[in-house]
Write a structure and sequence with these properties.
By secondary structure, the protein is α/β, with parallel strands linked by helices. It has five helices and eleven strands, in the order βββββββαβαβαβαβα. The chain has one domain: Rossmann fold, CATH 3.40.50. Helices cover about 30% and strands about 25% of the residues. Strands 1-3-2-8-9-10-11 form a seven-stranded mixed beta sheet, with helices on both faces. The protein has a two-stranded antiparallel sheet with strand order 4-5. The chain has a two-stranded antiparallel ribbon with strand order 6-7. Strand 6 and strand 7 form a beta hairpin. It is globular, with a radius of gyration of 16 Å.
């Protein structure tokens, strides 16, 4: 891989032909070791890539900087989105991935990018998982978007999220539904995190694809 990202990768233990893949994007101040625990049920069947954000953000890393809540720094966001698109396309070739069975899973900042990737990535994603994120207004209004009518989207949010408003999850749900995506939306009595129930629902969603 020629990618600028630091990342971890695990290959499926049952390899036969082209394989599906999960791409994991962590939240601000975290790292590439954070999210693989959410998808441990899929190590036999999927390639799993977990990327580290390129921006140092104590105590870990971030994928982009922000102007204020709900508003990423556009120049940084645009660049990192292109880099992740390139990473996924290169991974398809290098690891012989099934390009019709790719899913991006993100938490917080990662969920913002996961939704933007769902709207823009070619080849189109089979699934998008957005845990406690939002869709930036400039993505909705200014990006060139492709059809998401065959895309499966899982959106979840904590009812008491103090970092990203729960209303952002509702708005993401309504936005993807307005574009014709197949949306699963759940809320949980939690703050800015992933509850065991949320993880169970996520696992069930992934098994359904």
């Amino acid at each position: 891989m020629q990618s600028p990202f630091t990342f971890t990768h695990s290959a499926p233990t049952k390899e036969t032909g082209k394989q599906p893949a999960l791409f994991l994007l962590h939240g601000m101040g975290s790292h590439e070791g954070d999210l693989p625990q959410l998808v441990q049920d899929f190590t036999e069947s999927h390639h799993i890539f977990s990327l580290r954000g390129p921006v140092v953000q104590a105590p870990g890393y971030a994928f982009f900087t922000i102007e204020e809540e709900g508003k990423p720094e556009r120049q940084v966001f645009d660049k990192v989105l292109v880099y992740i698109q390139s990473f996924i396309r290169e991974a398809i070739q290098e690891y012989n991935l099934d390009s019709e069975r790719l899913i991006v899973i993100g938490f917080s900042q990662g969920a913002v990018l996961a939704q933007a990737l769902g709207l823009t990535l070619i080849p189109s994603l089979q699934g998008v998982v957005a845990l406690s994120g939002y869709v930036p207004e400039f993505v909705k209004n200014e990006y060139a978007k492709q059809s998401v009518e065959n895309q499966h989207v899982f959106i979840s949010h904590g009812d008491y999220d103090y970092v990203i408003s729960p209303q952002s999850g509702v708005e993401s749900k309504e936005y993807f539904e307005s574009l014709g995506a197949n949306v699963t939306f759940n809320t949980y009595p939690d703050g800015h995190g992933v509850t065991p129930e949320n993880q169970r629902d996520l696992t069930a969603f992934l098994h359904s694809l």
